[in-house]
Amino acid sequence: MDFYYSKGSASYAVHILLEDAGQSYNQIHIDLSSGAQNERPYLEINPKGRVPSIVTEFGILTETPAILTYIAQLNPHKELLPTDPFLFAKGQSFNNYLSSTVHVAHAHKHRGSRWVDDRDAQALMAKKVQTNMTLCAELIEENLFTGPWVLGDQYTICDPYLALAYRWFEDDNVELSRFEKLKKHNLAMRKRASMQKILPFHS
Ligand SMILES: N[C@@H](CCC(=O)N[C@@H](CS)C(=O)NCC(=O)O)C(=O)O
Question: Span 85-192: which CATH code?
Fold first, then answer.
């Protein structure tokens, strides 16, 4: 499996899970700062011009929630997915919230040009990011997080994704001292061998 990633990007979650799953992979760095995501040959892998992507023997996969699910399903003995259908769906619900709402709210800080050309309007959107991301952190802390892991006692594909969201919260100056459960979760993530292994590639 080829894993296309970029330092300090959404690919962080997939990178952690690849290690948790014991999946063998080749990692290929795409330098977002030089715009490599929007050039050939990467556009042939992912015409969306985004990371992460994985290239498997069956084809290419993009979108973090789908990639996380696939890697977990490839390695069932690692038990990274709940077997109970309702809990499985809860995990999908959590990861889709991170992908469709939290990541998009975060992107308004650095990627405002996706939505508006006017620089003043971009600056106004960026100004709202801290407030919006704080609301997302609050919702996760109070409503979505079970503990000690996202879905309860089982470590699943939701946990590396939450570790990524924690980085977004830090970047967006969310006052994390207010969020005991999120802080504790991040400390537990940092102690894991998977996280230790991939951190040097993302700092
Ligand atoms: N929905 C995609 C979003 C991926 C995404 O936006 N990745 C960012 C890095 S965090 C990216 O590649 N940005 C490059 C760009 O906007 O040019 C996912 O969840 O995988």
Answer: 1.20.1050.10
Phi, psi of 181 (to 5 degrees): -65, -40
- Please spell the DSSP secondary structure of 141-166, one letter per residue: IIII--SSBTTBSS--THHHHHHHHH
| Domain range summary for the chain, segments of one domain joined by + | 2-78, 85-192
pLDDT tens-place string over residues 142-180: 999 999 999 999 999 999 999 999 999 999 999 999 999
| Sign, Cα dihedral of 168, 174, 177, 181 | negative
Phi–psi pair at 196, nearest 5 degrees: -60, -40
Q: Ligand 1: does its nearest atom lie under 6 Å from the Cβ of 51?
A: yes
pTM above 0.90, yes or no: yes
Instruction: Give how far the C-alpha of residue 128 lies from the chain's centroid of Cα atoms, to the nearest Å.
Output: 21
Cα of 103 to ligand 1 centre, how many Å? 9
The answer to whether the Cα torsion of 64, 66, 67, 71 is positive or negative is positive
**85-192 matches 2-78 in CATH topology:** no
Buried/exposed 99-131: b ≥16 CB within 10 Å, e otherwise: beebbebbbbbeebeeeeeeeeebeebeeebee
Give yes or no for a cis peptide into 148 (omega within 30° of 0).
yes
Measured in angstroms, how far is the CA atom of residue 51 from the centroid of ligand 1? 5
Q: In this structure, which topology does domain 2-78 adopt according to CATH?
A: Glutaredoxin (3.40.30)
